[in-house]
Amino acid sequence: MSSDKGQTEVRRVGIAGFGTVGQSVARLLCSGRYPNLLLTHIYNRNIQAKKVDWVPRRVVWTDRVEDVLDIGVDIFVELIGGLSPAKEWIEAAIIGGKSVVTANKQVIAKHGAELCTLVRQGGTALGFEAAVGGGIPMVRGIQQGLGSDHLIELVGVLNGTCNFIFDRMESAAVTMEEAVQEAQALGYAEADPSDDLEGLDAQAKIAILSAVGLRRPLTPTDIPTRTIKSVGQMEFRQADKLNYVIRQVSRVAVDNAQGDQVQALVTPALVPKSSRLGQVHGAENIIITRGKWGGESAFVGLGAGGEPTAIAVVGDLLSIAEDTGTSTAMRFPVSESTSRVSKECISRHYLRTPTVLSHGMNSVPDRLKRNGVEVEKTWQESQNSGQSFTLVLTGLASFSVIQETCGEVERDLKDGDQCVWLPILDESPKEH
Amino acid sequence: MSSDKGQTEVRRVGIAGFGTVGQSVARLLCSGRYPNLLLTHIYNRNIQAKKVDWVPRRVVWTDRVEDVLDIGVDIFVELIGGLSPAKEWIEAAIIGGKSVVTANKQVIAKHGAELCTLVRQGGTALGFEAAVGGGIPMVRGIQQGLGSDHLIELVGVLNGTCNFIFDRMESAAVTMEEAVQEAQALGYAEADPSDDLEGLDAQAKIAILSAVGLRRPLTPTDIPTRTIKSVGQMEFRQADKLNYVIRQVSRVAVDNAQGDQVQALVTPALVPKSSRLGQVHGAENIIITRGKWGGESAFVGLGAGGEPTAIAVVGDLLSIAEDTGTSTAMRFPVSESTSRVSKECISRHYLRTPTVLSHGMNSVPDRLKRNGVEVEKTWQESQNSGQSFTLVLTGLASFSVIQETCGEVERDLKDGDQCVWLPILDESPKEH
């Protein structure tokens, strides 16, 4: 350890991608608060249209990424998103001896181990705090703060867009389409919100947290991931009566029954109103950790938005400038193989189907019972349109048997009708 | 940056203090989970009585601290508590070229800046994550995770003992004396619980967080700090009716009106049931941060107990072993002077006095009004004993005017009777 560490050796920072987050990062870097971080380059396609007047004259505006990957930059900030060419640019920067900071969950979820190996070999740093949980320091909190614990479960709300949509459906009784439009108007959802609604965004994030928290790297696409699109106003009304709310939940846990397996899923679910998950509102995110020694901890905050995400990016930049930032890459587990994902999670479940089954057909409760699932409660509800629905609460059952039963039921329904299914995630038993 | 960082260079660890936390740290270090941390020395007074059989034979048991401060140890873990000789031992270790990890909130609150300067000069590391918030990585989360933000307020529940006591008084309707005894039986409170009940423990913790989060070092004893001992069952019943609960709250905030001043306090207070502070139960702790850019974030978890605290100690040890641990000391602001503390916090207030004022004396509401305080509501309540109390809710008023009024009222009361006063801390307006 040398004694001059932490001194203000100035690092030159180049940003690739000048969208919402890139602009917030630039604003922070130009605020005068960080004397050892000097913004020198901004890359974007069609850069002339992107220029702003609040950036100092010394900054080079360019639409050639080669300029930012050149020797004039010490730290490369990747904010273009998507798998390619982002991954190739990050690789080129590392090979060129630069440290890298990225908010790219897809690249880290899929190529994190590979990139971290490259970084270790080169002796630079890779920071990806901004890839998960926006402004909440989840990666640092889990990896360094709780790095000495033996974590056994991570469960959270990791997509601020879905949470905003559910919050609006719950509090303002709007339809999902209306809530999506509101989210788009406020900049919480993109023009094509599929990655959020289908759970792919949360899938990448929980895969990253599994690697850094449980040290179990997962192939993101192995994680059972369910759309939130089937959730309607009916679900919010029923959940409310049962003292639950609906959240898009991401979870990964060590499977005690199966040595190297993990349980993992991303799904809309009923969670108790009074639970930590139930109390996350608007664009907030939360991650709850359960550790063998430290019990339950939780990190909550704004999971989306340019400014919170920029805080995470600049936090990584500061760590690298102060030479304390290599740890992110250091603690990313590198293994040839990823852990196997168990699809056999067990919980209670909520099901809703149109009441259209004709005489002689199997009712949903009958089908469930025949598949060995206990039916706790069943009742009918009508929509304003007059359509009648059958609702069922089950006892404990595995996801696969419920999925199978829903499939059977849907084969009896007319096209477009569906069996809406939400697991009920009551709080796991606490360690203490 | 060298390329061999993060490799498993083994560090020899010596523990001074083999109480609850020391034993949990030793258990973790002997678990085989941390190949680069080697427990070599354990110091305690009367060491023969402390020996346990689950520690490897190589470990030196000693009642001479000089053995642990010797060259055979790389990292000195100070867990004896109290100001002296803990501070002198930490100094001796740093001067001797060792890194230090401590759970000692009193030493860091009072001497943190001085010790961090010493560490910087010597090029070693000082970790004190365990001094605040038990197993919750508050120091790291605030200092590194949110280090790029401009934090303007920190508010939390920082003493697990007081929170446990209040939780029991609320949920089991026991007296404070009974709750203290329960806490002692469970190991949450010491034989002499004064530091917890009088708020001195929380005072030291919020002083540390002010330094690392707001970069405003405070002299701990400057922080207005109020005992929880005056809080009775009557307060819990009234709070419940008003939809509040009672928590020992610690808060520090930048005072916008007064440039370099900060507002700071430790006090029992009414907080909304549905607020983050209100939802912290048992021995849990929470810190809520408000930042100019990142908005509101919160860290929650177990704030007391040997194992959670040991997680924080070993987390610091791992950071030092991986050479990423100097940052704690690096970011501790060193300044000749500490910030001034404003005593002019403003909130609504709850007051309770015995209804014993004779005709012609000023009633509490009258006194409040004469001192310029708006009275929102006043009512009478009787205890089982038949004693009658006058209760008052005020509008917004400064702490000093309420304190003054309580003083006036108490001069009219008979010895032993008091004016119970709790501020009502409704949630601060959120940034987003």
Automatic annotation (TrEMBL), chains A, B:
Q: Which SUPFAM superfamilies match?
A: Glyceraldehyde-3-phosphate dehydrogenase-like, C-terminal domain, NAD(P)-binding Rossmann-fold domains
Task: Please provide the Gene Ontology terms (biological process) for this protein.
Answer: methionine biosynthetic process; threonine biosynthetic process
Cite the Pfam families for this sequence.
Answer: Homoserine_dh, NAD_binding_3
Q: Report domain Aspartate/homoserine dehydrogenase NAD-binding positions.
A: 17-127
Q: Which UniProt keywords apply?
A: Amino-acid biosynthesis, Methionine biosynthesis, Oxidoreductase, Threonine biosynthesis
Q: Which residues form the Homoserine dehydrogenase catalytic domain?
A: 137-318
Q: Which GO terms describe its molecular function?
A: homoserine dehydrogenase activity; NADP binding
* Pathway(s) where this gene product acts: Amino-acid biosynthesis; L-threonine biosynthesis; L-threonine from L-aspartate: step 3/5; Amino-acid biosynthesis; L-methionine biosynthesis via de novo pathway; L-homoserine from L-aspartate: step 3/3
- Which Enzyme Commission number(s) are listed? 1.1.1.3
Q: Which InterPro entries match?
A: Asp/hSer_DH_NAD-bd (IPR005106), HDH_cat (IPR001342), HDH_CS (IPR019811), NAD(P)-bd_dom_sf (IPR036291)
Q: Which family does it belong to?
A: Belongs to the homoserine dehydrogenase family.
- Which PANTHER family does the entry mention? HOMOSERINE DEHYDROGENASE
According to UniProt, the name of this protein is Homoserine dehydrogenase
The protein's organism comes out as marine metagenome
> What is the organism lineage in this UniProt record?
unclassified sequences, metagenomes, ecological metagenomes
